[in-house]
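Hi there,

I know you've been waiting on this one. I reran it after we fixed the sequence typo, so this is the corrected version. Both the input and the resulting structure follow.
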Amino acid sequence: RGFSMVFQDSLLFNTTVYENVASGLRIRGISRREIGRIVTEQLERFGVAALSGRKARSLSGGEAQRVSLARAFATSPEILLLDEPFASLDTPARESILDDLEKALSGSRTAVLLVTHDRVEALRLADSITVLEKGRILQKGEIIDVLRRPASEFVASFAGTETVVAGRVVRSGGGVVVASASGVEIEAAGEAYRGQRVALCIRPENIVISTGGRTRTSARNAFTGRVARLLPMAHYYKAVIDCGFPLVAFITHQSMEEMGLREGGRVHASFKATSVHMIKKEH
């Protein structure tokens, strides 16, 4: 059949790396010479050619998943099913394998269905995405549409929206909605009726932080707050700012040092009305 599958556990046969990758080809009656060519090609593609003669049980988790992918691609499947294949791997191993998998997919005609709880994996590998909660489809569509216009708070959280604030519309007109949320007013581009309940979604990369006095900008939302937490991430810091509601922003280490940003310090945070995604509630 025209599909292959890779599981969270590698499920390799108790034989050599070479024999594992060759197994699907032998079942299909491929010649020995052609099997040798294909196995060598796939082992090289996933960086495990040097392990060809090794027993599968002697491999590390990352090595075993590379062999599993080589075995899956060896049969040139029309569809590749990936069931959380990187969930048990550490970050360096996962990043390295994702790089190789991206390259392998770019040169193939294989359609891939990936099941994952990891947002980064989904965003890196997928063209379209379906978000499920408890077996129910909440939203599906192109990656960029789901990122920019999440249909619910759950989808917004999955898509990387760090700030989701519940509010109620107090004014609306001219393409701008003003909602009262946690005792403050937040402006968002759009239309809604007065009294309507909304959820306001603000992505962290759209927030500008300053430590000087407020300056005039085109941003319709500007708040003064206190830095509640500074959390180191991979290449930046996540700043949680108490503005009457918790507002999360991303900031580089260099910018943090230049501004003298510290937990407990006072800052100004601003963002445009057009950068606020509004989810309307019917009840």
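Quick highlight: The chain has a mean pLDDT of 91.

Best,
R. S.
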